[in-house]
Amino acid sequence: MTAGPASATRPHNRKQLIVEAAGQVFSERGYHAASMEEIAAGVGISAAALYRHFPNKYALFAECAEVMVDRLVLALREAPSVASLRDVFAAVTRVTVAHRASGGLYRWEARYLEAADRRRLRAKFEQVVGRVTELVAGEFPLPEARLRAVAALGAIGSITMHHTSIAQRRIEDLLLGSALHVAATDPSAAAGSAGLVEPPASPVPRTRRAEILAAAVPLFARDGFATVTNAQIAQAVGLAPSAIYRHYPGKVDILVAACLQAAGLLAQAVERSLEHAAGPRAAVEALAAAYVAYKFEHDALNSVAEAEIAGLPDDLKRPLILAQREHIAVWEQQLRGVRPELDARQARLLVHAGFGVVVEAGRALRWENTPGHRDAVTALVIGALTL
């Protein structure tokens, strides 16, 4: 019996194609918003064919979450034992840039992994961080080698979190330079910056609506918007679940309110930071200190806004995306004032590298909001911008 046309044309690497397509969908839309039908369509197969490779969405998600770190581990294993930090960063950068569309999955969505899968993923990342830390400590004998290593990897990994389009080689060069500068940065270089910045405080919840929002944010940050129920939010406020609807038409409206609050607080931080900045360099340094202060002060609120915005309906997402672009445009303008050789897209890429440093360094420091931590991360952000 001969094989039919479908069998004859079936690609031998179909499972790999599925994982690539799924990783992109999960990265862009989030685990819960993504559907197996959408992923199958991206590969050009039916959902039934997809289920022949993966029994359910979680199995596919878990596979996607490990693929990127497996690639990084392999890249380090293939590097010579005497490889320099530049060589290792170059290998990590090539892998990350080549798979930028699907590589950001671990940053926010990995919280939906089951405990055993999450532990396995962390152990693999630790192999990467450990190797890089050793090289950073050897080549740049400064304090906080591990923090600098994590921050440098954050700069590289930032490419998975935005869509700025530049020639691939230029992206690799910019990210490699940024990561090396971060690794070589003394975390005490911005000592005292924390004392110059007072991030906007969250509004004191004086209404029931504000109390609901304040109770929902830490739940969303810990468990993810999709898994938190109105009953849980109501319980945290001491209300009956039905009472939530008197203040918010639906749970998504609470999320939108959280995202708008985050955008408003960040805008205040930016405005304050630039009030007394004398010149572009001082403005960039002030922006870095203000952004770091904002992230440490409002880590739960900000993580919700960054992790969940992709799953919002387009009409609700649009003003939030616009606010993000306006924020980045301020950074671009000031950075190009210091580094006029950069075009707008190159400056934007480096700004995102700085943001990536904050995310990974902040996580490494468990977002413990101390002046020392904020000073250290601010120095590393400035390093990422290669000033």
TrEMBL record:
Tree of life domain: Bacteria
Alphabetic keyword roster: DNA-binding, Transcription, Transcription regulation
All copies of domain HTH tetR-type, residue ranges: 12-72, 206-266
Keyword Transcription: yes
UniProt-listed Pfam families: TetR_N (PF00440)
DNA-binding residues: 35-54, 229-248
Gene3D superfamilies named in the record: Homeodomain-like, Tetracycline Repressor, domain 2
InterPro entries on file: DNA-bd_HTH_TetR-type_CS (IPR023772), Homeodomain-like_sf (IPR009057), HTH-type_TetR-like_transc_reg (IPR050109), HTH_TetR (IPR001647)
This protein's record includes keyword Transcription regulation: yes
Protein name as catalogued: TetR/AcrR family transcriptional regulator
